[in-house]
Structures are given as C-alpha cells and as structure tokens.
Specification:
The protein contains one helix and 18 strands. It is mainly beta. The chain folds into two domains: 96 residues, Immunoglobulin-like (Sandwich), CATH 2.60.40.10; 108 residues, Immunoglobulin-like. The strands form five sheets. It has a five-stranded mixed sheet with strand order 11-18-17-13-14, with no helix packed on it. It is flat, with a radius of gyration of 22 Å. It starts with 11 loop residues before the first helix and ends with a strand.
C-alpha cells in the first residue's frame, strides 16, 4: 500500500525569511529593520533670507516608526508625526544658524542620513558641517574609502593655525587614515569633499570632523553623519 506524502510549500519570500531566522536564531538584523529615509519635500527653509519661515519637512522611507530626528546637531524640530506604517515622517524644522545641515533619522535599529536641509538666514557661515558620506556602509574589517561632503571653508583667516594641514576624521572613537585635501564642488559655494579610509569597526558609528590642533578655528565637532559596518 502506498502512502501519499504531503508537504506545505511556502511562498519564496517566506521560505527565505524562515531560512534567515533559522540560520541566525532570529530576525535578520540590521538589514530588515534598519531605517530607510529620503527627504521628499521641504529641503529649503521657506520664506526669504530676510524673513525665513517655519518649514515642514516630509521624509519617506521604511522602518521609521519611533524615529527621532536631528538637524546636524542643531535641533530635532517640532510637531514630529509618523504614519502608522512607518513610511512617512513629517516635522517642522527648527530655526537655526544659516547654511546646510544633514538630516539624520535615528531608530532603535540604526541611523540614516535622509538628506540635506538648508537654512536661509543671511549671516556668514563660519562653521563647517558634515553633510553626507558615500558609501554609507562598509566591511567591519575597514579599508573602505569614504567621500565626505561638507559645508564651509576649512581655511582660517588670516592664517591656518601652526601644525594644521588636514582635519582629523573619526569613525566613532577611531581616527581614519588616508585623509585627502578638500576639493571644492563645482557650482556650490563653500561646499567641498574630502576622502578618508574607514578603520575597522562594528555596527553603526558617527563620522565626525575634528581639528588636529588646539589653537584651531571653530568648525563643528558635534554634528555627524552615520556609517554602518557590515559582515
């Protein structure tokens, strides 16, 4: 007598998810839960330079539930709202000093740079702010060459402090190597790029610029852009 053998065929997506769960002992982290975010509208402050007005910034992405925001170390904004699906976030940008800032979205599962926001105030911009990093991830062994864009000129008037050549670039608490001289971005006043080689690390870290000498000009050491180390 023959016996019929029955098996349940799972959809491919469920099968792969099940394999991931069985192999890792839980949900695949942080790939499946890390936030994805892009500024959809409101990249520039409303109004004019003489009369800047509150601006609603809309960010679209995924895994945004419970997210918090930071405008380049200069505030989180107000009236934060996130839809139930965690795909659309709105916030009123804070009033602030002039210039561009990276908009960093943070959740329990990681950080992401959603883009750059521009404040309209017409006063000079003496402070340097990091804006973006590319690529945004690399192997935990290090060695990734990362291009950093920043706003503001690193030159010091009337002269660079003694001993100053290049800014120090940190990935978390570890200093990067291979930092290159800043290069102006064509058509963007006071906007530059430089590259640095990522050291070894784990998880999400903040990339920051720091002045290498004590008697330095004041560029920001508090704002940052995120970088993710992957296996």
């Amino acid at each position: 007598m023959t016996h019929a053998h029955h098996r349940t065929v799972l959809p491919l997506g469920l099968t792969l998810a099940a394999l991931s769960i069985n192999a890792c002992g839980g949900l695949p982290f942080p790939i499946s839960l890390a936030p994805v975010a892009t500024i959809f509208s409101g990249q520039v402050e409303n109004g004019t330079n003489a009369d800047p007005l509150p601006t609603t910034v809309t960010i679209v992405g995924s895994n945004l539930s419970g997210a918090t925001l930071d405008f380049g170390g200069d505030g989180s904004g107000t009236d934060l709202s996130i839809n139930s699906a965690g795909t659309v976030l709105t916030v009123t940008a804070p009033p602030n000093l002039p210039g561009r800032r990276p908009v960093i979205v943070s959740t329990a599962y990681g950080k992401v740079n959603a883009g750059v926001y521009t404040f309209r105030q017409p006063t000079p911009r003496p402070i340097v702010y990091l804006l973006t990093a590319y690529p945004t991830s690399g192997p935990f062994t290090g060695g990734t060459t990362v291009t950093l864009a920043f706003d503001g000129n690193l030159t010091y008037n009337p002269a660079d402090p003694p001993g100053f050549t290049l800014p120090d670039v940190y990935f978390g608490a570890v200093k990067a190597t291979g930092v290159t001289a800043p290069v102006p971005i064509p058509g963007n006043a006071d906007r530059y790029t430089l590259t640095a080689v990522a050291p070894a690390g784990t998880g999400f870290v903040d990339i920051t610029l720091k002045c290498p000498v004590a008697s330095c000009y004041t560029f920001s050491t508090t704002d940052s852009v995120p970088f993710q180390y992957v296996p």
